[in-house]
Amino acid sequence: MKLKKIAAAALAAVLALSMAGCAGDDAKQTASSGTADKQKFTLEYPAHMQELGYTDKIELEKAPERIVCTTTYPVMTLYDMDVEMVAVPQTSVLDYPADLEAQQLPSLSMESFNAESIVELEPDLVIMAAASKQDYGDTLSSLGIPVYYMATNSQTYSIYDVVREQSQALVDAFTTDNASAAKAKEVMAQFDDLDKRVEEMQKICAGKSVLMLLAGGPTSMYLQTEKGTLGCMAAMCGLESVYQNDQAASMIPLDMEKALEYDPDVVLITGMGTSEDVETLMKGVYELNPDYWNSIPAIKNGNVIYLPGNYVSTAGINIIQNIEDLADILEDYYAQK
């Protein structure tokens, strides 16, 4: 594999340089040690990652300047902290700000992705999903490139809590002066403000039940649990899922027969594209089997809210805006009832 050859060559070069510069480093150590301590950069893992065994900190002599993100989760938090990134992943989950000048790399799941493109950018920190550790992270680490891993789901934490802890770890690491401290405060204040907003919604939605579906087509219907992105958001707003289980799955194939036993107050349906795209898709699904779908009272009575693809998966701190939007939608919906 070409990437492994690069790894071997890079390691050899590092050894040669370290041997050549050893005496010079010793001579400079005493004079520079005080400054180095102030410049050191430490990025720790949050609790949900430490429970998975990620306990080693990322420790660098200074804050990284060539950051490559292969997952969307850290991008907007780093952007809000004015941290420059040299590359971010292509995505349809969010629209990057116009002034984000980072190169957009193919997603790791895309056939066009080439791991060598990361190496060629000469990053001093790569942030990627933990699921990619074995396929890509270990190889990058063998090249001496620091790799920090992020969860994109959790069996024990809600996705909102995952994002909150991730954001806290990032702002703690990148707070280096008064200006960055102020930005860090602004970033985390968004979570505090959202907490107050959902407290209001929990009063409005108290006692209301919900069925949450992910629509892929007539033969591709999934039920979202409270472990899923939409499920987490709905639960935060005070809705109680009609599907109660103790499984860790974020979604399961819809059991058409079992679904007839549910009697939700409202049905939330998401899928790819806009909310209008999802509604159009579902109209076609209803037409194929009207007797079945009309057997679910909420659907028969039109108590359905169609949601865009933002609710299929999240993109880090953008989950805050998604939840605020859902709260507004639910508030308007119940105001009309």
From TrEMBL:
Signal peptide bounds: 1-23
The GO biological-process annotations, alphabetized, read as: cellular response to iron ion
* Transmembrane parts of this sequence: none
| UniProt cross-references to InterPro entries, sorted A to Z | ABC_Transporter_SBP (IPR050902), ABC_transptr_periplasmic_BD (IPR002491)
Pfam families, A to Z: Peripla_BP_2 (PF01497)
Q: State the superkingdom.
A: Bacteria
Annotated Fe/B12 periplasmic-binding domain ranges read 66-334
Q: Supply the alphabetized keyword list.
A: Signal
Q: Which family does it belong to?
A: Belongs to the bacterial solute-binding protein 8 family.
Q: What is this protein called?
A: Uncharacterized ABC transporter solute-binding protein yclQ
- Which source organism? uncultured Anaerotruncus sp
- Lineage of the native species? Bacteria, Bacillati, Bacillota, Clostridia, Eubacteriales
The coding gene here is yclQ
